[in-house]
Amino acid sequence: MVLSRPIKIVVGVLTAWPLLYIFLFFAFIAATMFWISRSPSGGGPHYSGPPVAFLLLFAAHFATMLLMFGLIAFYIVFLFKTDRVPQDKKALWAAVLFLGNMLAMPVFFFLYVWPDEWPKRKADTVGGSPA
Predict the structure, then answer these.
(1) Is residue 77 part of a domain?
(2) What's the predicted TM-score (pTM) here?
(3) Which of the ends of the chain has fewer CB neighbours closer than 10 A, N or C?
């Protein structure tokens, strides 16, 4: 499977988003707790429903989860369609990508998706020895 440079950049940005989102999520929650404790009403009698920021956070959270499912599917398909990953490591990478997805996907991306030229293995050269 061969990907163009712009597609690789898009995949890289989408792969980085879930890790970035975790930090943004916790920062938002911490800021919200600080803001509620500082507000004069403290979320008291004038409270009429969830704030707009919470609804936006819910939408971002849901979209990030859908993105994660799409990324898992993309990486599993890429894994089995590429010849960059040795055949004996494909099952291991499939398990790692599925179980440790958010942490494993950036590693897989930089090891197997991002490089343009792939170094030849000894078995790929003529006669089994490097030229």
Answers:
(1) yes
(2) 0.77
(3) C
Q: What is the pLDDT of residues 86-110, one digit of tens each?
A: 999 999 999 999 999 999 999 999 9
Q: Are 14 and 71 in contact (CB under 8 A)?
A: yes
Q: What's residue 46's pLDDT?
A: 62
Low-confidence stretches of the chain (pLDDT < 50) are: 131
In a domain, 22, yes or no: yes
- Residue 61: which domain range? 5-114
Q: Judge whether 125 lies within some domain.
A: no
Domain total for the chain? 1
